[in-house]
């Protein structure tokens, strides 16, 4: 019997209280994220902000891929409701995460001569080193989040999120006050990667969850994890790594690129930050609703559409003034463009929801196929002979529709065949 078997959840479905606790933590994390962006935009001119934005997106891309560890650990632990893990075939997800983190960091460093010059401009090697260190830490961070979600420890789950975000904004504030420039904001981006260690030191409950074992061999767990990581990586390209995609398809972004990156980031954050932060809640919810996952999608999808129905006209009417007032006169974008960016965020949020339902059903290949299809469609649309703003809107709005169709088809076939 595993020494953490008592931590395996035996309670009912995800509660409103758990969603509320994670929601509060998400709001705090989002405010901290906005604060980092605000400080960076105020301290760096648009061209400099585009350099920071690409690194911010690159770290979002690799950490988004690492969220596959969160998804797999949540699903595996949640599937053990009320059971006791016995026998030699068991896995410690945190140990697997440590191995994956070190290996991933090594891949980044060793492969960097092939791609770093095309992605990073100023502070190229500092960016590579920070990216690798940050990813290694985030692998353990994401896995611990998944373990906490699997055992309904939502207070600790939220605490880990807030600690990560608070460390980032503290370093960004220091960079702003002390004049560290671009390098300081690069450090701020990855500064929260040790938040998991702080929580383990401070919380006996988190330590108990981290010791939890899952059924099956490490190889089995790692196979499922690699499927989830590959799929989460494809999703991260659109969700967090979009600035990198813009850079790869546009060459030098310059000041106009800085404005587009900031506008896209700000308009999608109200939807995508909560959805990304609540992946544990969503996957747990869809696992609990395993016999009616398509129906279980209706309520969260309706909420996303409702938020979008308010957000699109708000971005049109108030967005240009807010952008100019908050970030300075160098950051100018028309209301219609901000409204279209917000509509693109709704499309991407719906894809995130269908993806969570698909991974909860252990349909890893369909999950990956949906996100890869959406990413390839977005890349193809970004290569259209249009101006930067127009092709960005088309890619963000239409690319996710491909993935949504793939996910819904897979879920419907899975339901028909059960």
From TrEMBL:
Keyword field: Cell membrane, Membrane, Transmembrane, Transmembrane helix
Membrane topology: Multi-pass membrane protein
Top-level division of the source organism's lineage: Bacteria
Transmembrane segments: 21-41, 47-70, 96-115, 127-148, 160-180, 186-209, 221-242, 254-275, 296-317, 337-359, 366-386, 392-411
InterPro entries recorded: Poly_Biosynth_Transport
Annotated compartments: Cell membrane
One GO cellular component, as annotated: plasma membrane
Record's keyword annotation contains Signal: no
Keyword Electron transport: no
Protein name per the record: Polysaccharide biosynthesis protein
